[in-house]
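Supplementary Methods S3. Input chains for the assembly prediction are listed below.
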Amino acid sequence: MSEAKADFTGQVALIATMHGKQAAFAPPLTGLGFTIHTLEGFDTDRFGTFSGEVERKGDMLDAARAKARAAFVHSGETVDWVIASEGAFGPSRVVPMLAETKELALAWRPVDDLEIVATRASFETNFAHLDLTPDADLDRFLERIGFPEHALIMRDGDRVTAKAIMDHRTLASRITTATASVRLETDMRAHLNPTRMGEVSKLADSLAVRLSTPCPGCTQPGFGRTGVEAGLPCEACGTATEWVAQEVWSCRACGYCESRPRADRRTHADPGNCPICNP
Ligand SMILES: [Zn+2]
Ligand SMILES: [Zn+2]
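Predicted structure tokens for the full assembly:
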């Protein structure tokens, strides 16, 4: 199996972002040899905003594709790759009490339409809101979301009345004139939310790892985990459990795929999760 790292020296990667995300993507991509280009005056907000003024069409990958293609046309440059990313936030499906963050990064090679995708999901987010009712605990909310290092937006019904609130004075004056239906929300744009930028950095690292991993079948970049297979055997009786037995790695260029051991090298499941030992 070929594990030699791909080298992108001399290739140009255009980063299609306007919320400072090149701070997250440039270091790992530069590490692979890329020359980084960014766009001036490229408005990614027209592809959808977190605050909902522009509704996002399709799923996260569709949105990233639209951004990447528009950036490519907008730049008018000859670039080898275009990098775009998307985030989504909301209550976790597994633990609805917790907010979850999902991030997706796309590396698109226009010359042959090859797409390399990395995703990340975690609970590392301050995504939250507070309705400014008379009994609202503003101080506790501000402490919890990390204000003012993390910015706020203000909404009155469907209308966003202020964004990027990053200091107590502005917040106080906004609140003084607010009506009873006002809600404060975390501003999730990466350059105004250090917690999110941290997640985007981890996402950028995994995109770089994937880019630098060539397919054992065709040597194109982007080989990596695309799925999992359940059925890890029980430690006591050997029955297949719901635990992940192996990872499935595949190549988007040629379709080659192979099974690989779990990243943690675990070969057996805890009997507590076995349908026979612990029905
Ligand atoms: Zn068992
Ligand atoms: Zn391949």
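The radius of gyration is 22 Å. The mean pLDDT is 90.
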